[in-house]
Amino acid sequence: MTGSAAAERLSVWFEGPRRVAVRRGPAPEPAAGEARVRTTVSAISTGTELAAWRGDLDPALPRDETLGAHTGGSFRFPFSYGYASVGRVETRGPGIPAGAPEVGSRVFAFVPHQSVFCTPVDDLLPVPADIPDERAALFPYLETAVNLLLDGAPRIGERVVVVGQGTLGLALTALLSRYPLGGLIAVEPKPERRRRSLEFGAQGAVTPEEALEHVHRAFPGGAELVFEVSGNRSALDAAIRVATRDGRVIAGSWLAGGKTPLELGGWFHRGRVRIVSSQVSHLPPLESSWTIERRRRTAWELLGSVPLESLVTLRVPLPDAGKAYARLDAGEELAALLVSSSSG
Fold this sequence. Notes:
Layout: H1 3-6, E1 8-16, E2 19-26, E3 34-43, H2 48-54, E4 79-80, E5 85-92, E6 106-109, E7 116-120, E8 125-126, H3 133-137, H4 139-152, E9 159-163, H5 167-176, E10 183-187, H6 191-199, E11 204-206, H7 208-218, E12 223-228, H8 235-242, E13 243-251, H9 266-270, E14 274-277, H10 292-303, E15 312-317, H11 321-329, E16 335-339
Parallel strand pairs: 9-10, 9-12, 10-11, 12-13, 13-14, 15-16
Antiparallel strand pairs: 1-2, 1-4, 3-5, 3-7, 3-16, 5-6, 6-8
Helix pairs in contact: 4-5, 4-10, 7-8
């Protein structure tokens, strides 16, 4: 890296619906208690971030009240966004507490897409030595999957369906396959994703059109537990229909930008089906012994044996970020990374 490149920061800004720009400016200097991190890769969220790119989110909505880099910001254009960056600590400001990541160490941060950034050292998560940068950038998917499991609380012998096999759905399928379930079926329209779901531990994979008949044939009466993580507006209604009486449907998609059609008569009403919203910004209220820190430690431990980087189908230099968003929005890719510099 040349001296001029090292002294410059590139950052991605959402400037309007389906329009991003890469801004250039001087690399920041760390304040007291902060570290400067040189980014290697950052992952684009195919859920909230794509909704932001499309302009589907309420402009007045806070971006995230639980992540320091986004506190006080909204989805009103223009704004910077992203929350999955991996890099190396380049330098540290004064007043760094003992035990903070050292210069040269690999770290993860919930910060917007940028080639270099400063953030409080307390907000940096050390990346375990056995986890490559690309997998570490997909950490939020696995942390969200852990939160979905805390909300769903799978029981021994239960029959489970996962609707949607994008990166989050596949991460969830991989974790569910470790439970002593009575069966695990994935529902996904794209053939390649159905194939990957079998590799990640599903016992069956079907299209949405086949789901109702197949699930009720495999699981007489339906599934006790259904996760909806497809991002498709019709999928939540389909998830309700494959659930058994008194079944639980865990809704993990943020279906922004319009109305979601639901049939809340018929089977939903008579079957006493329960719908639970699961969102990673908050822990399930009944899990009093869990903290965000514990959930993150658990996710890092699990990530060591889940090769999520194998799901990356697109790698784009950060200056060409707009191309990555457009291809993800078109449904052409499974997981995408913005590459800032070599991980060495």
